[in-house]
Every structure is written in C-alpha cells, then in structure tokens.
UniProtKB/TrEMBL annotation:
InterPro entries: Flp_Fap. This is Flp family type IVb pilin. The chain crosses the membrane at residues 20-46. It holds the Pfam family Flp_Fap. It comes from the Bacteria. The keyword Transmembrane helix applies.
Length: 60
C-alpha cells in the first residue's frame, strides 16, 4: 500500500492538464470582465446627447 501511495504522489501526468484548465479559466474571466467594461464605456459614450460622436450618428 505504501508503494502505491508513493507512486501516486510522484505521478505528475494530470498536473499539466489542471494547470492549463486554470489558465483558461483565468483568461476567460478576464475577457468577460473586459467585455463588460467596454460595453459600459460604449453605452456611456453614446448616452450623452451633447457628445460629438452621438451627434455624428444622429439623423439630420
């Protein structure tokens, strides 16, 4: 039993997959948070009626 436990503790084959999964998770959360910030900025940019950008797209 002791040899099985020691072999299990030395085995690192699944560690790479777990590390890649954690990296993908962190990157996806960062991208989702960034998209939310961009959406808020664009909404603020077009919500101001005195904005030149909002007036440029307004119907004449």
């Amino acid at each position: 039993m002791k040899t099985v436990l020691l072999r299990f503790l030395k085995d690192e084959t699944g560690a790479t997959a777990v590390e890649y999964a954690l990296i993908v998770c962190v990157l996806s959360l960062t991208i989702i948070g960034g998209i939310g910030q961009v959406f808020n900025s664009i909404t603020w940019l077009f919500s101001d009626n005195t904005s030149r950008l909002a007036n440029a797209f307004a119907a004449p």
